[in-house]
Design goal:
16 strands; 4-stranded mixed beta sheet; single chain; 3 helices; 8-stranded antiparallel barrel; mainly beta; 57% strand; rod-shaped; Porin; 6% helix
């Protein structure tokens, strides 16, 4: 047989975090218990939970489940608030002297700035691909090419590319300024037939060009426009570039010459982009820039703390 208690002992609770809860009455009606209280505080909304314990016990129960009324998340401050506990749904009975306690946790509204600062990553890692690179143009400006091939005589052309693929690691937890380390690789194969500039005979040629870049970038993030999911940025930096060429021609008199047109081994990049996060950690990046690979860069990004 299920039955309720005949006597209740009420506890006044003064909570932390600038709010006060005052239980003003507890009464039993049929199989339910009604707890009336006042809630005052500086925040607009609170998460309200209610607990119970025997007068002879030092430990509280878990938060009561079968309750309704002014309880749960998003409860506003006010007077004469009421919680109703359907006791016999949670336990077989309640006899003796009992103490009720109410807990209120503030629910401060988060602004975009609050969200950004609490989720501000200390590092991020991304993999990407670049589009609209100009590897073939680099081949055609090379002296080995210009001294061998009669202008505009190429035919039966075939071009295969490995568009720039890369990895980027970003470090720093400043909201507006970070460092990034960028590595990418690209490759182009250009096969064609042509008229030799020196002999005016027709031959075939294969040219392979590959580039490896390692760069240090300075990243400027706009924290005023950032939130948990959207993060715009601007980058600028320099790095090292290693270019390799392989020229193969069916012309037995073809000789390689110095790649004098190359402007050293320095690379640079200036770009604007944004990270769009699909979850707390994983997202996609989109970047438009010049130098250091292709003009359009997209990929996946993972951030950590």
């Amino acid at each position: 047989m299920k039955y309720l208690c005949s006597f209740l002992f009420v506890l006044l609770i003064i909570s932390l975090k600038s709010q006060t809860i005052n239980i003003i009455s507890v009464e039993q009606k049929n199989q339910k218990i009604y707890i009336n209280y006042n809630l005052t505080g500086t925040q607009n909304k609170y998460d309200i939970k209610i607990y119970v314990k025997s007068k002879l016990s030092y430990s509280w129960s878990d938060a009561l489940i079968s309750v309704y009324g002014d309880v749960g998340p998003d409860q506003k401050v006010g007077y004469n608030k009421q919680i109703i506990w359907d006791v016999l749904k949670d336990r077989d009975g309640l006899t003796g002297e009992w103490i009720f306690g109410i807990e209120a946790v503030s629910k401060k509204k988060k602004t975009n700035k609050d969200i950004y600062s609490t989720n501000n990553p200390k590092w991020s890692f991304s993999s990407y691909v670049d589009f609209f690179s100009f590897l073939k143009s680099g081949i055609q400006f090379n002296r080995n090419y210009n001294s061998e091939v009669t202008f505009d005589s190429e035919y039966n052309e075939s071009i295969t590319k490995i568009i720039p693929i890369g990895l980027k690691f970003v470090s720093g937890n400043d909201k507006d300024f970070r460092f990034s380390f960028d590595f990418n690789y690209s490759k182009c194969n250009y096969d064609f037939e042509y008229e030799s500039f020196s002999s005016f005979n027709n031959y075939s040629m294969n040219i392979e060009k590959s580039i490896f870049r390692a760069s240090l970038f300075f990243e400027f993030h706009n924290s005023k426009k950032s939130d948990k999911y959207y993060e715009p940025y601007t980058i600028f930096g320099f790095g090292y570039k290693q270019s390799n060429y392989i020229f193969e021609s069916t012309n037995p008199d073809f000789e390689l010459e110095e790649n004098y047109w190359l402007l050293g081994n320095t690379t640079f990049r200036f770009a604007k982009g944004f990270n769009f996060y699909l979850s707390d950690n994983l997202g996609i990046l989109l970047e438009i820039g010049i130098g250091g690979g292709g003009m359009l860069r997209t990929g996946l990004i993972y951030r950590g703390s």
